Amino acid sequence: MSHDGRGTQRTNALWGTSGTAGTPGTQETHRWFDDEAGPVVRPYAMTRGRTTSPGQHRLDLIAVVIAETQVPGDHDADRTLSPEHVDIVELCRDTPQSVAELAAELDLPIGVVRVLIGDLVDDELVHVTRPVPPAELPDESILRDVISGLRAL
Amino acid sequence: MIFRRSERAKASVEPVTLKILVAGGFGVGKTTLVGAVSEIKPLRTEETLSEAGRPVDDTSGVAGKHTTTVAMDFGRITLREDLVLYLFGTPGQDRFWFLWDELATGALGAVVLADTRRLEDCFAAVDYFERRDIPFVIGVNCFDDASRYPAEAVRQALDIDEGVPVVLCDARDRESVKEVLISVVEHAMAAAAAVREPATT
Ligand SMILES: Nc1nc2c(ncn2[C@@H]2O[C@H](COP(=O)(O)OP(=O)(O)OP(=O)(O)O)[C@@H](O)[C@H]2O)c(=O)[nH]1
Ligand SMILES: [Mg+2]
């Protein structure tokens, strides 16, 4: 592996020279906007202000959420499921899908969806599969399948 | 229980999911590339800067703000019912780099798109993946009005390892993008093989 520090030189020489005045990028910046006011707050109302789910590690963006086939009989009345909770369960019942897909589909920020999924896991309405652990590469056979899958697209 | 698609009665096929990142400077063709092979959906994240900001980020421009909304390109490629590849277009601005760490964790590899008219725009991305030993390939997006350079010249200008593939591509062209993605996976495979055989040669 290349730990030869060349990258550092590259950075020192040129960091900050890109994206200066007159680049086409300046026009595009409005896409990554800052919300100074309300819009940020509203989605988190859905999670009652919670930005993290207690006792849970951060769900990976590509972790797959699967609806439990057995819905627990003694449905816990403590927590009233929000329409968004229900949406998630229904989407996953149709097809198991990733955290990122659920966020995109429901047009909710990833952080909000993570909290809602955490609730559903607690309620045993869904479970989440861990993707290939970070720092561990998938099997070679899977990678071969990916290559042939891409060729066949 | 009623499933709309009865073929999917075994809807609990748990797919293996993988991700490839698409990085590069402003307007280099990231969104175009993701869109060429998948249906793009915008993905929003709201980050608390105090939590996510790193000393290396220049946060001076956003001082005093608590959260920031960042949109990313997000595409899904269903290779098989049980094998799904996700593409994530990384936000181009330096100040959103904290997001890269989350995206990069567990990534199979990355495409760094480069435009030969402003090669320096991709230096930061190259550095990022190099330092973390994340397999990446350089996709040289061949814009119509840019002069063509051989891949070797680009490699030298970027000062990257022999092993890093440099692929000339057209981000608008599906076949071309497929080739780029295939080279990412092949490169990741080679990197994995090198790790598995810890021959310290
Ligand atoms: N000729 C040519 N034009 C391209 C190519 N790829 C992208 N473009 C054009 O370049 C422009 C910018 O492409 P985008 O895909 O939006 O670039 P981006 O990297 O997503 O840009 P930002 O998200 O703003 O950083 C668009 O007008 C594209 O149509 C290419 O391979 N050849
Ligand atoms: Mg874009």
What does this structure look like?
Chain B: InterPro entries: Gliding_Motility_GTPase, Gpn, P-loop_NTPase. The complex is a heterodimer of chains A (153) and B (201). With 153 residues, chain A is mainly alpha-helical. Chain A is built from seven helices and three strands, in the order αααβαβααβα. Chain A folds into two domains: 1-38, no CATH class; 43-133, no CATH class. In chain A, 41% of the residues lie in helices and 7% in strands. Mean pLDDT of chain A is 70; it is low at 1-41. With 201 residues, chain B is an alpha/beta fold. Helices cover 29% and strands 28% of the residues of chain B. Chain B has helices at residues 30-37, 49-52, 98-104, 123-131, 151-158, 174-196, and strands at 16-24, 39-48, 67-80, 83-89, 109-114, 136-141, 166-169. In chain B, strand 5, helix 4 and strand 6 (136-141) form a beta-alpha-beta unit. The radius of gyration of chain B is 18 Å and the shape is globular. The interface between A and B is large, with 70 and 78 residues. The complex binds guanosine-5'-triphosphate and magnesium ion (MG). Residues 24, 26-32, 92, 141-144, 170-172 of chain B line the site of guanosine-5'-triphosphate.
